[in-house]
Amino acid sequence: MPPEALPPGFVLTGGWRVLERLGVGGYGVVYRVEPVDSPGRYFALKLTRNTAEGRALRELTLLLDRAVHPNVVAVHACGRWPDLVTGHFYFVMDWVPGPPLHVWADQHNPSFRQLAETFRRVALALDTLHAGDVLHRDLKPEHILLRDTEGDPVLIDLGASAYTGAPTLTTGPLPPGTRHLRSPEAIRFHQRHWRHPDARYQSVATDDLYALGVCLYRAATGHYPFPPDWPADVLCAAITSQPPVAPSELNPRIPPELDAIILRLLEKLPEQRFQSGAELASTLAPNRFTSEAWATPLFGTDTPAPPRKPPSLARARVRDLETRLSRPVLLVVPAVLLLLAVGWLLHGWRQTTPRVTPQIDPLEGHKIARHANSHHSEAVTDSPRANPIPVTVAPVAPPLQDPTPVMKPPAPPAKPRAPSLARLSKVALACTGLACSSSTPYVQHRPIPPVAECPAGADETHERFGIEQGDQFEGSIGENFGTPFRNITVKEGYLMTNVHRKFKKLPAGAQLVTEIIFTNERVYGRIREMRVDGDVYPVCLVYYEFSDVGRQRLPGGDEEHAVIFNLLHVRVVERFREILGKDW
């Protein structure tokens, strides 16, 4: 029986009866369970989807040793199913019945004093984690659950957390996370190093505190500082350079002190933020909030006057880019790129800060859960270095739907004046150099990847397994998820390709760590590492199709996702370069 398909009533090894499935991702699946010998006591059981337990043990070690705190989810048991030695690894945690932070704020409409106390407790929990050299790295409203309506918070899902000595989760510049909660300095690092897979951003406490500021902004206003559904390049440009609208402009009920706290958490420079959870907690101390404004609920029964429109992102972006272009720069850009960049800007002017419905896109690295039932959930972007699951083909669970807010202040429409054509031309030239988050927009021309050398030792590996330049063999993505012969959706980054059947001395099931890169027409796979029976070997392989490098993109997908057929050919090369005249 597949781990993600256990029916209600099924009993796992160890005596845990399944009640319902709460969430599923590429790495694992979460169930609400009860002990067979103690029915009515509910827990959350996290079960790995394959028998490699690396990431699960990493999280379990963290929760048992370094993340022990009253406001952090606790672990109570662990085991394997169906076999005690070779089965799928699982561990059992607290089940928190309450809603996530933003739903609690919307549905229960607490006072600002209650909201401040909730965040004070979260800040103290973060401070304890940071003092133990632990960083959450994926703090978001969905990962702060409330035990009760009074606002007692519980931090969950530390699967992406970092601590000293922990195995590496990612093979790209940024750790797992969610784009609209990443700090400005993390995005700037990615913009500089997105084509360098060996570069690693070192997260620090102020990254978690920035994300906490985004969570507080969302709870207090009903909106994110910058809408998650903005195009990737526009969203990242806003996070790195655009001041957010003051929370009190979206919700005039917000006390001035809280307004200042939120804006300080969202400062662009880390040294200007709170430097520790303890510092933030002291600022949120209850004795500081004595005015009547702190006793009022977040959202009133009356409809507030429309706030002043948010500053135009496009206008601020124009000013920023014009500053950069004041230095002499020679650029030659095709006219089509100019028009596309203008289109993006016009799209940005039409965007304001709509009421957020945080739908979860499993291909975007979010979590999957139905928070009408529960909120324990699993990451669906995983690293082949930590757990060799082809995560980009995980089945999709129902998306989160944000309930109707309690008289949430609407974000006003913005009607900025269109700038001159000369100004748009400058912006278009500058925008073509933006690289943000996991990929650049699909509608933009995406260059073929540059020439690169094979890793040292690749020739010896090829000789060891009896393969040579020009050899081709079958590979597949997603062999753990049923028949491999189907279309799948992938995104730029790293995934695992499997040797589909034995070829010379290459065994079937050998795992190929593959870097996925898009152009507008094709999906390229570069393979520098192969894993066989726990051993790692350098290789030099590429995806290949119909006498050409890469795979043809199939209908569907968007700027960050591509659809391909997941049974493919892999070719041995001597360099990541010209094949049939194509530098790639």
For this entry, give a set of tags.
single chain, 584 residues, alpha+beta, Phosphorylase Kinase, domain 1, Transferase(Phosphotransferase), domain 1, Lipocalin, 3 domains, 6-stranded antiparallel β-sheet, 6-stranded antiparallel β-barrel, 22 strands, globular, Protein_kinase_ATP_BS
What is the name of the CATH topology of the largest domain?
Transferase(Phosphotransferase), domain 1
SSE-based structural type = alpha+beta
Q: Would you identify the CATH architecture of the largest domain?
A: Orthogonal Bundle
Low-pLDDT ranges: 303-319, 321-336, 345-406, 412-444, 479-484, 578-584
Shape: globular
User: How many alpha or pi helices?
Assistant: 13
Output the radius of gyration. 25 Å
Sequence of strands across the biggest β-sheet: 1-2-3-4-6-5
- Level-1 CATH class name of the largest domain: Mainly Alpha
Helix content: 10-25%
Output the CATH homologous superfamily of the largest domain.
Answer: Transferase(Phosphotransferase) domain 1
Mean pLDDT: 75
Give the termini separation.
42 Å
Residues in β-strands, percent = 15-25%
Main sheet overview: 6 strands, antiparallel
Total discrete domains: 3
- Please report the total strand number as a whole number: 22
Can you give a write-up of this model?
The structure is a single chain. The protein has helices at residues 54-65, 101-108, 112-131, 184-193, 205-221, 232-241, 247-250, 256-265, 277-283, 313-325, 335-350, 421-431, 458-464, and strands spanning 11-12, 16-24, 28-35, 43-48, 75-81, 88-94, 134-135, 144-146, 153-155, 162-163, 367-368, 378-379, 472-476, 487-490, 493-499, 511-518, 522-532, 535-545, 548-549, 551-552, 562-565, 567-572. The chain is built from 13 helices and 22 strands. Helix content is 25%, strand content 19%. The chain has 584 residues and is α+β, with helices and mostly antiparallel strands. The radius of gyration is 25 Å and the shape is globular. The protein folds into three domains: 3-94, Phosphorylase Kinase, domain 1; 101-310 and 352-359 and 399-414, Orthogonal Bundle (Transferase(Phosphotransferase), domain 1); 458-572, Beta Barrel (Lipocalin). The two termini are 42 Å apart. The strands form six sheets. The chain has a six-stranded antiparallel beta sheet, covered by helices on one side. The chain has a six-stranded antiparallel beta barrel with strand order 13-15-16-17-18-22. GO terms for molecular function: protein serine/threonine kinase activity. Its EC number is 2.7.11.1. Belongs to the protein kinase superfamily. NEK Ser/Thr protein kinase family. NIMA subfamily.
